[in-house]
């Protein structure tokens, strides 16, 4: 049931990510419009209207900026999202079904650390610098629990290959078998996409933080990249914890898309309902509560695998 | 053929970006030049068929370099507009030493008569690696891990000038610690 | 085909709103208009295309505004909303300015030419970008670290009007702080000023100062600012909508049910409590409204808001914008933010929410 798709399907990856990303942005805008007392339908076109505005807006040149790192940082965000998505299967096939797909996904998603720091540093702005450092603190907080969550899923399947992880769930979804790992994965999904309650690196209290000095097409690339990233971490939750393309009646790819849409909707709703998490407080929770919790979860799954 | 081209590009790129570390005039750029060098080396490892090690190099190096960036540039509140600064000291001496070491290693790689391969590469190098590390050498690896961890904890404890008596009072009776910035759990 | 014009017409403007002391009425009208038109409010000048200035002109504020104007990438337009009545008119005019592609191109060319001339005139520079370097000082752990001087405000979103907090940062930790008011003037606070209530003077629709509904609207205004700073835009936007509904003359108990739901949602948020607990704790020497930590202060606002919708519950607290309270809040800011990182400092300022209009031409004490 596994397989690598022909190379041209790699072109489909950014299109699908953009579609899901647009959906997340439109959903957020619609929920915001409802909160603001205007027609929620207007939210559906809001990302497109905002993109039109940013396409016309001029780029900025800043005295003393490290333009190379600054521009590189912004461009790296969508690139990392697409690279991470190469191992995410749509139905039974992924663009590349690497034997270490889970580690590849993890490695590509860590590129965001470098991207945001470059973005914050390069702009020669105090807001940007604080935003960039803030994301590193966030990274150091979410990454270990996140890695243990990924490890637990791989442990359950006895393989780092994403298609093996999917195959191991034909009896019971890993979301049921390892609920703690799934919950931690969703939490870190929000954190690594620096979105919703974990959006403080580009937060309002920092006047936009790492994105404070961006304008025009640079800002558009960052925002689109961020939503693509949200889409890809949501999409990866499907093969890791939600049984991949398995489901009755519909073909595998349809199930994958439907489940991904469900996870994206859940993340958007969480982002709407929750205020920001302050990193100086979350770090302690991550290290003192989440790390032991995910370790115990991994132990339980290991014992389960050995005795099965 | 394609592999040779990829290897050549990555090899030249890795050396070039490695050299760039000492040429650029900002700490941030030096950090990322070093990172680029490591990432290109990781591609070479991937070409050897060691996918786990290659991807792991990418993963760990990005995180490591970012943590290094924090320590190198931490609290230098001169975003980007840092004064251009040279990345080398003792220019002549370091050039001589590094060129000598490079030539020595390159000569070793070229001149040593490498033995012919006798065995077959394992079907799954990742599994073979895991068995090598966690098989008969397990005790050593666990000990090494523990020692590394203990070193990190000890180093942190030694550098922190606040101890438990500062936090919980002289008789350790304070309910909530007295910290300049409290954590999220209130302990 | 004119792609630029086509895109411009479809774009929803993004407004960077700066409020001068004495501009609260105009700010409320602007926020309302922006919200109802589905426009966005910018976090920073870099992403904005509309600069909206609320309130009377002031020479010191103008300097800050010039810098903001220079940071806006263009196409750009400026709207001076000196009074609430003129808001719709000036926003419409600014929107038309934005759509005038020919004029925007001229503006862009002019700026490019000026930038080139400046670059040629500057020639060789000692500092990168002509910017001064940070100096060094001891931090709280005894390490010599770079210090950066930064002014928070007056052109900052969700920030008290005209407040400029001059801080020295190491990392993102505030080491020193000093309060300065830009454009301070004598005059009543917006929330205390007598308003025209002749049209509908029934008790249901009375919006005069001291009335529970005015107090509630003022508290809602403070709460929405805090919620934005705390990173909860959905609740903050809903708060703005309810505030505008409370201030609307002639409405009956319309928003009350929704207001109750909003109060329940905010009060129940453990995450919000967790973010503000223990921040900026003020002892008993301060006026009653400011005592406790940030959580205590915003919980008090919620009580005032509740008093407006639950008539049988009387608000025992004094009017929140008494000049003495505002002055005390302003004087408390420096000592409370020192030693805190920026996120906490912003939450502390938002929870104290000094009404800079009520203090008059008060000179704040020099901070540490």
UniProtKB/TrEMBL annotation, chain A:
Keyword Phosphoprotein attached: no
InterPro entries with a match to the protein in the record: NADH_UbQ_OxRdtase_su1/FPO
Keywords noted in UniProt: Membrane, NAD, Transmembrane, Transmembrane helix
GO biological process annotation, one example: aerobic respiration
Membrane topology: Multi-pass membrane protein
GO CC aspect terms: plasma membrane
Residues passing through the membrane, by range: 6-25, 68-90, 110-130, 142-160, 172-195, 227-246, 252-270, 282-306
An annotated Gene Ontology molecular function: NADH dehydrogenase activity
Pfam families, per database record: NADHdh (PF00146)
Localisation per UniProt entry: Cell membrane; Membrane
Family membership noted in the UniProt record: Belongs to the complex I subunit 1 family.
Protein name: NADH dehydrogenase
Species per Swiss-Prot/TrEMBL record: Nocardiopsis sinuspersici
Lineage: Bacteria, Bacillati, Actinomycetota, Actinomycetes, Streptosporangiales
From TrEMBL, chain B:
Location of region: Disordered: 168-187
An example Gene Ontology CC term for this record: plasma membrane
Biased composition (Basic and acidic residues): 168-179
Source taxon at top rank: Bacteria
One family name in Pfam for this protein: Oxidored_q3
EC numbers: 7.1.1.-
GO terms of molecular function: NADH dehydrogenase (ubiquinone) activity; quinone binding
Localization (cell): Cell membrane
TM regions (residue ranges): 6-24, 31-50, 56-75, 95-114, 134-158
Annotated membrane topology: Multi-pass membrane protein
Annotated catalysed reactions: a quinone + NADH + 5 H(+)(in) = a quinol + NAD(+) + 4 H(+)(out)
Keyword set, alphabetical order: Cell membrane, Membrane, NAD, Quinone, Transmembrane, Transmembrane helix, Ubiquinone
Family: Belongs to the complex I subunit 6 family.
Function summary: NDH-1 shuttles electrons from NADH, via FMN and iron-sulfur (Fe-S) centers, to quinones in the respiratory chain. Couples the redox reaction to proton translocation (for every two electrons transferred, four hydrogen ions are translocated across the cytoplasmic membrane), and thus conserves the redox energy in a proton gradient.
Annotated protein name in UniProt: NADH-quinone oxidoreductase subunit J
UniProtKB/TrEMBL annotation, chain C:
Annotated region (Disordered), positions in chain: 101-135, 187-213
Biased composition (Basic and acidic residues): 101-127, 193-209
Top-level division of the source organism's lineage: Bacteria
Protein name per UniProt: Uncharacterized protein
Gene source species: Nocardiopsis sinuspersici
């Amino acid at each position: 049931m596994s397989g690598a798709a022909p190379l041209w399907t790699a072109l489909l990856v950014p299109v699908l990510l953009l579609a899901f990303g647009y959906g997340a942005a439109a959903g957020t805008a619609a929920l915001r419009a409802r909160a603001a007392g205007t027609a929620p339908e207007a939210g559906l076109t809001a990302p497109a209207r905002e993109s039109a505005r940013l396409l016309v807006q001029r780029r900025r040149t800043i005295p003393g900026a490290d333009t190379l790192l600054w521009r590189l940082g912004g461009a790296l965000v969508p690139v990392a999202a697409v690279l991470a998505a190469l191992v995410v299967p749509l139905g039974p096939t992924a663009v590349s079904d690497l034997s270490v797909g889970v580690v590849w996904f993890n490695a590509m998603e860590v590129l965001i650390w470098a991207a945001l720091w470059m973005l914050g540093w390069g702009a020669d702005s105090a807001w940007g610098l604080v935003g960039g450092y803030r994301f590193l603190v966030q990274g150091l907080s979410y990454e270990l629990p996140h890695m243990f969550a990924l490890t637990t899923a791989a442990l359950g399947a006895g393989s780092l290959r994403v298609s093996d992880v999917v195959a191991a769930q034909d009896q019971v979804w890993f979301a049921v078998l390892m609920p703690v790992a799934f919950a931690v994965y969703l939490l870190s999904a929000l954190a690594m996409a620096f979105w919703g309650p974990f959006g403080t690196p580009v937060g309002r209290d920092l006047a936009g933080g790492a994105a404070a000095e961006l304008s025009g097409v640079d800002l558009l690339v960052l925002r689109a990249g961020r939503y693509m990233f949200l889409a890809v971490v949501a999409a990866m939750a499907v093969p890791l914890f939600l049984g991949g393309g398995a489901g009755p009646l519909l073909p595998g790819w349809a199930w994958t898309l439907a489940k991904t849409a469900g996870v994206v909707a859940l993340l958007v709703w969480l982002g709407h309902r929750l205020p920001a998490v302050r990193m100086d407080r979350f770090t302690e929770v991550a290290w003192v509560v989440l790390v032991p919790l995910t370790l115990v979860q991994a132990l339980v799954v290991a014992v389960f695998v050995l005795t099965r | 053929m394609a592999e040779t081209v990829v290897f050549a590009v990555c090899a030249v790129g890795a050396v070039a970006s490695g050299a760039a570390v000492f040429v650029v005039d900002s700490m941030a750029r030096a950090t990322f030049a070093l990172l680029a060098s490591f990432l290109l080396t990781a591609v070479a490892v991937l070409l050897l068929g060691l996918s786990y090690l290659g991807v792991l190099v990418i993963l760990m190096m990005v995180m490591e370099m970012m943590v290094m960036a924090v320590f190198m540039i931490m609290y230098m509140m001169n975003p980007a507009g840092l004064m251009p600064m040279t990345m080398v000291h003792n220019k002549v001496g370091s050039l001589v030493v590094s060129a000598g070491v490079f030539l020595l290693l390159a000569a070793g790689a070229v001149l040593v008569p490498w033995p012919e391969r006798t065995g077959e590469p394992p079907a799954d190098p990742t599994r073979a690696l895991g068995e090598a590390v966690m098989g008969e050498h397990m005790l050593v690896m666990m000990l090494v891990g523990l020692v590394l961890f203990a070193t990190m904890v000890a180093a942190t404890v030694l550098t922190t000038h606040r101890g438990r008596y500062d936090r919980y009072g002289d008789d350790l009776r304070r309910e909530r610690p007295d910290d300049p910035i409290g954590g999220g759990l209130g302990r | 085909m004119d792609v630029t014009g086509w895109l411009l017409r479809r774009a929803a403007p993004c407004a960077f709103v700066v409020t001068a002391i004495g501009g609260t009425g105009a700010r409320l009208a602007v926020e309302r208009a922006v919200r109802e038109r589905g426009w966005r409010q910018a976090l920073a000048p870099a992403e904005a295309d509309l600069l909206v200035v609320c309130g009377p002109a002031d020479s010191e504020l103008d300097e800050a505004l010039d810098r903001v104007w220079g940071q806006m990438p263009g196409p750009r337009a400026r709207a001076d909303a000196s009074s609430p009545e003129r808001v719709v008119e000036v926003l419409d005019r600014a929107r038309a300015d934005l759509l005038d592609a020919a004029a925007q191109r001229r503006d862009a060319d002019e700026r490019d030419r000026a930038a080139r001339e400046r670059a040629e005139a500057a020639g060789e520079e000692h500092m990168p970008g002509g910017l001064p370097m940070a100096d060094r000082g001891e931090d709280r752990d005894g390490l010599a670290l770079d210090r950066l001087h930064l002014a928070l405000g007056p052109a900052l979103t969700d920030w008290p009007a005209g407040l400029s907090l001059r801080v020295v940062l190491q990392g993102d930790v505030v080491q020193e702080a000093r309060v300065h008011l830009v454009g301070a003037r004598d005059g009543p606070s917006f929330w205390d000023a007598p308003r025209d209530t002749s049209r509908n003077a029934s008790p249901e629709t009375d919006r005069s100062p001291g009335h529970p509904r005015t107090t509630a609207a003022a508290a809602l205004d403070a709460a929405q600012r805090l919620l934005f700073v705390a990173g909860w835009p959905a609740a903050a936007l809903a708060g703005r909508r309810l505030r505008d509904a409370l201030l609307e003359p002639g409405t009956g108990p319309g928003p009350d049910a929704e207001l109750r739901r909003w109060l329940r949602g905010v009060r129940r948020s453990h995450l919000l409590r967790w973010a503000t607990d223990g921040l900026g704790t003020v002892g008993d020497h301060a006026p009653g409204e400011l005592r406790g930590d940030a959580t205590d202060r915003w919980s008090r606002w919620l009580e005032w808001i509740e008093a407006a919708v639950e008539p049988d519950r009387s608000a025992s607290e004094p009017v929140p914008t008494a000049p003495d309270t505002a002055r005390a809040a302003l004087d408390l800011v420096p000592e409370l933010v020192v030693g805190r990182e920026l996120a906490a400092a912003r939450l502390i300022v938002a929870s104290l929410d000094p009404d800079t209009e009520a203090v008059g031409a008060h000179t704040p004490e020099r901070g540490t």
